[in-house]
Amino acid sequence: MARALAPGGQLWSIEYEPRHAEVARANLAAAGVADRATVLVGAGRDVLPTLEAHAPFDVVFIDADKISYDHYGRWALDHLRPGGLVLGDNAYLFGELLDNTDRGRAMRGFHELVAARCDSVCAPTPEGLVIGIKR
Ligand SMILES: C[S@@+](CC[C@H](N)C(=O)[O-])C[C@H]1O[C@@H](n2cnc3c(N)ncnc32)[C@H](O)[C@@H]1O
Fold it and tell me: Could you count the other beta carbons within 10 Å of the beta carbon of residue 99?
C-alpha cells in the first residue's frame, strides 16, 4: 500500500499490540517506505479520532478486531472522499457471518453499511473481501 501512494501521499496504520507494531515498522523500513508510513499503537476506536485532521482519505483498509467492523466502516465512510475506497478483509467472518453473535451482527452491519453508501462488491477471496467505492 505504501508503494502505491501518489507522490506526497501518507499511510497511517493502527495496531493494538506494541510488538506487532514494532514488526510492522521494521518491515516498512526494510521496504524503504518508512518516510511515508506511520504505525500508531492503540485500539482502533481510540486512535481513529486522532487521524480526523488528515481527512478526507482516499482509502481505508480494515483488517482488525471483527467486532468493531461496523464502527470502523462508519468511520471510514464518514472520512473518505467521494470516490474513495473502503476495503474490509475477512468479510466471511471465518464461516460465522450468519451467527447470532456480536461479531456476526457487527460484520453483517458492515456489509449493509457499505452496500447502502457505496458501489460495492464482496469479492470471493478465501476470506471474503468487501470492496466499496463511496458514492
Ligand atoms: C490480521 S492482522 C493485520 C494484518 C495486516 N493487515 C497485514 O496485512 O499485515 C490483525 C491485527 O489487528 C490487531 N488488532 C486487533 N484488535 C485491534 C484493535 N482493537 N485496534 C487495533 N488493532 C487491533 C491485531 O493485533 C493484529 O495485529
Answer: 13
C-beta of 131 in contact with ligand 1 (< 6 A): no
pTM recorded for the entire structure:
0.97
Nine-digit cell at 45? 476506536
Q: Each residue of 41-99: pLDDT tens digit?
A: 999 999 999 999 999 999 999 999 999 999 999 999 999 999 999 999 999 999 999 99
Is residue 16 within 6 Å of ligand 1 at its C-beta?
yes
Q: Which domains does the chain have, with CATH numbers?
A: 10-42 (no CATH), 55-134 (3.40.50.150)
Q: Tell me the CA–centroid distance for residue 98 and ligand 1, in Å.
A: 23
Q: Match 464482496 to its residue by C-alpha cell.
A: 122
Q: Of 13, 15, 48, which is best to mutate to test ligand 1, by the most ligand atoms within 8 angstroms of its C-beta?
A: 15
- Determine the distance from the C-alpha atom of residue 119 to the mean position of all C-alpha atoms in its chain, rounded to a whole number: 17
